[in-house]
């Protein structure tokens, strides 16, 4: 059943226009009697039935609220040093499906990508569209967002908003560090916020790592294999999902 994120407050009877209406009418070719899931701004999720649809709008009524929770008990934010090509799109899409709560992108010291403000805005719109489609496809009850940060310093200033901050660090993996991610998950409680930072293709500079550590972040290995910049975030989200969805079910 199709799912739509609605940028409005919850109400049992609703009239939709814009993109959701276009998708229902032109793409899905829905008619009165068809059912969909609607997720409102306050994360209220309901099953709704179309009562009327025409060229201007679609009218729906609530059938029942969705009671089964599909979200992870902790909020995981993934911060990526700007990678090349379409790697950020892959991270955003797949990590959304795996339950990520938010995405941050920042210019790391070794980032090759250089975008001006106009291109950043266009890229951000595209990425958030990809995230929305992934959230709808995976039946999320929360719509993640991606934000571009101006610098690593701005990222560090956000550390205070999290209960734990980890640095996915290649050198830690080489040295066999395997406990930090598990220890962090064991200490976090429902509603806690976890930030995990990933470097671009060239990794982090020693100065960056030192700055992150001085601000309270902890080094974290992700197993014995060296992962690509677009693979590491998916490893983390898969591990978090296993820990909360399966191991502690």
TrEMBL record:
Q: Which Pfam families match?
A: Methyltrans_RNA, PUA_4
InterPro entries reported for this sequence: Alpha/beta_knot_MTases, PUA-like_sf, RsmE, RsmE_MTase_dom, RsmE_PUA-like, tRNA_m1G_MTases_N
Share an example GO biological-process annotation for this protein.
rRNA base methylation
SUPFAM superfamilies for this protein: alpha/beta knot, PUA domain-like
Which GO terms label this protein's molecular function in UniProt? Answer: rRNA (uridine-N3-)-methyltransferase activity
Kindly indicate whether the keyword Chaperone belongs to this entry.
no
Entry EC number(s): 2.1.1.193
> Which Gene3D superfamilies does the entry link to?
3.40.1280.10, Hypothetical PUA domain-like, domain 1
User: Record keywords: Metal-binding included?
Assistant: no
Q: Which family does it belong to?
A: Belongs to the RNA methyltransferase RsmE family.
Q: Which protein are we looking at? A: Ribosomal RNA small subunit methyltransferase E
